[in-house]
Design goal:
This protein is an alpha/beta fold. 25% of the residues lie in helices and 32% in strands. It starts with a strand and ends with a strand.
Length: 161
């Protein structure tokens, strides 16, 4: 695999708990630490684009994500993203179908023991290397096209539609 472009946007995957505030806030991106712990045998570049909860993302943010991908040459792109609006962002970058773009996130912060973050990142890494060009979502051990998936908020997981 050529160099993997990783764009971080925030979301639960990068949230941290602040005791003084008794609050969760999006912190530093965790993906570099995760890849180092995997002893990843490929080159990657992380662009920490924003630190937002995905419910706060708007069309301008999605255009920034799309433009950032378009302005880089990498064929393989992984986007860490909050789960609530991941599908909307995936749909917004679909025109860049000449690359393999995979969005992933977590339902629990990566810093937490037992988080699904590492599992989801691993699935996303497999998808970005094995899927043909297009846009995909990697969550809960599955890979979907963005128009074939939704987040089931009541069961706190992604599912086919």
């Amino acid at each position: 695999m050529q160099e993997l472009l990783i764009i971080t946007t925030g979301g639960t995957i990068d949230k941290t708990y602040f005791d003084a505030k008794s609050d969760y806030q999006v912190g530093e991106s965790e993906i570099g630490r995760v890849l180092e712990s995997f002893s990843a045998a490929f080159d990657w570049r992380v662009i920490p684009l924003m630190r937002k909860d995905s419910l706060e993302l708007n069309d301008a943010d999605r255009e920034l994500i799309r433009a950032t991908i378009a302005n880089h040459d990498q064929q393989f792109v992984l986007i860490t993203h909050g789960t609530d609006s991941m599908v909307e962002t995936a749909l917004a970058v679909q025109e860049l179908s000449d690359r393999t773009i995979v969005l992933t996130g977590a339902l629990n912060p990566a810093r937490f023991v037992g988080s699904d973050a590492v599992f989801n990142i691993g699935c996303a890494l497999g998808a970005v290397q094995s899927k043909p060009p297009g846009v995909y979502i990697a969550m809960n051990g599955r890979i979907w096209k963005p128009d074939e998936v939704r987040k089931n908020r009541s069961q706190n997981r992604f599912e086919s539609i």
